[in-house]
Amino acid sequence: MIGDTETALLDAVKGLFGNTLRDVDTHPGTWDDVAIKRMLLSEPAVYLAWLGCGPGRTSREVESHWVFYVCASMLNGREGDRLGIYQIVERLVAGINWKTFGSTTGMKLTKGQNLYTDAQGGAGCALYGLYFSGTTPIDTSIDLSSLDDYERHWQTWKQPDGTPPFEAHINVNEKQP
């Protein structure tokens, strides 16, 4: 459900922009310095991330939330011969809003936001987020008996703040004497 929607959204963005964007990809998943640097240095670019989901109208669907991170070197590319944030945002909204992608229907714009930080300002890049949500069906035909049991669980805590990390490696199916 998530993977097919993601693939369809990325394909749609590539179709909307052809070869005019330097990069169209999924968000790397972290906001570390390497990921931010990659995003800011690859403008003009669009990165996609699934933000999660909330309840749907019925028990067989969820409301999926997605964001497109839009990077460009200027707000309005009209002054130059290249895409700016405004041109990318306008084309994305026109191409995504109220359409179906994979199994997700009715993708609707919920918010557009300037994501300015000092890091991007220093890099000479504008970064905006376009937030969409759409209805995604839940596959209720999953046979739970076909799923393997988890054998191990690994977790790290830092409770309370400032204490050394506490690590636990638990063998879930280990029989206790």
List its traits:
177 residues, 6-stranded mixed sheet, alpha+beta, 37% strand, single chain
Write up what this structure looks like.
This protein is an alpha+beta fold. The chain has 4 helices and 8 strands. α1 crosses α3. It is globular.
Strand composition percent:
35-45%
Helical/strand content category: alpha+beta
Question: What order do the helices and strands follow?
Answer: HEHEEHEEHEEE
Strand count = 8
Query: Would you tell me the overall average pLDDT?
Result: 86
Main sheet: strand order: 1-2-3-6-5-4
Helical residues, percent: 10-25%
The CA-CA distance between the termini, in Å, is: 42 Å
Largest β-sheet summary:
6 strands, mixed
Number of DSSP helical runs: 4
Round the Cα radius of gyration to an integer and report it: 20 Å
Question: Which word captures the global form?
Answer: globular
Q: What ranges have pLDDT less than 50 throughout 5 or more consecutive residues?
A: none
Secondary structure elements and pairings:
Blueprint: H1 2-17, E1 23-26, H2 33-41, E2 45-55, E3 61-72, H3 85-96, E4 99-101, E5 104-114, H4 118-123, E6 126-137, E7 152-157, E8 166-171
Parallel strand pairs: 1-2
Antiparallel strand pairs: 2-3, 3-6, 4-5, 5-6, 7-8
Helix pairs in contact: 1-3
